[in-house]
Amino acid sequence: MAIPAGFDPAGFSPGFLDHGGPYYLGPALEGVRVVGLAICPHHINYQDAAHGGVVSTFADVALSHAVHDAERPRLAPATVTLTVNYLAAARLGDWLEARVRIDRLGGRTAYCSGAIWRGEEQIATMSAVFAIRRA
Question: Structurally, how many domains does the chain consist of?
Fold first, then answer.
């Protein structure tokens, strides 16, 4: 699948994220970068759709990246709660974009929400609370 113009490999730290992606960082919307994911064969479940865990991991990656990138020096977020509401299935070859907003960034806690889109169709909503550590 061709990655849309404006998106570059995220280059997140090696480990678990290598298995869930690859993830891409795109242009910012309202100050928060869009995170992209192309649905690949290793994301598909027995129903020929992206596994729910792939979508929830994508949500966590995008929401936590928004917090991580919100300040300089960068913040170190740890997920406290994550809620994902599935609205439609993602299929092999789909390009997904996670669009996030930071609802509140406090001294030790951050609240975020947003949605995952396939083109003009919203396929999931998401929200999370993060504990944050500043350098």
Answer: 1
In a domain, 7, yes or no: no
Q: How far apart are CA 54 and CA 13, in angstroms?
A: 18
**Residue 66: count of CB within 10 angstroms of its CB:** 29
Whether 48 is in a domain gets the answer yes
Of 39, 36, 57, the C-alpha closest to 48 is: 39
Q: With residue 17 as reference, give the H or E element that holds it.
A: helix 16-20
Predicted TM-score (pTM) of the model is 0.95
Whether 6 is in a domain gets the answer: no
CA proximity to 129, closest of 64, 69, 70, 61: 64
Identify the H or E element spanning 104.
strand 95-105
Instruction: Please report, to the nearest 10 degrees, the dihedral formed by the alpha carbons of residues 9, 46, 119, 70 taken in order.
Output: -40
Q: What is the pLDDT along the chain (135 residues), one digit of tens a residue?
A: 789 999 999 988 777 887 889 999 999 999 999 999 999 999 999 999 999 999 999 999 999 999 999 999 999 999 999 999 999 999 999 999 999 999 999 999 999 999 999 999 999 999 999 999 987
Task: Identify the residue whose tokens are 């891409």.
Answer: 24
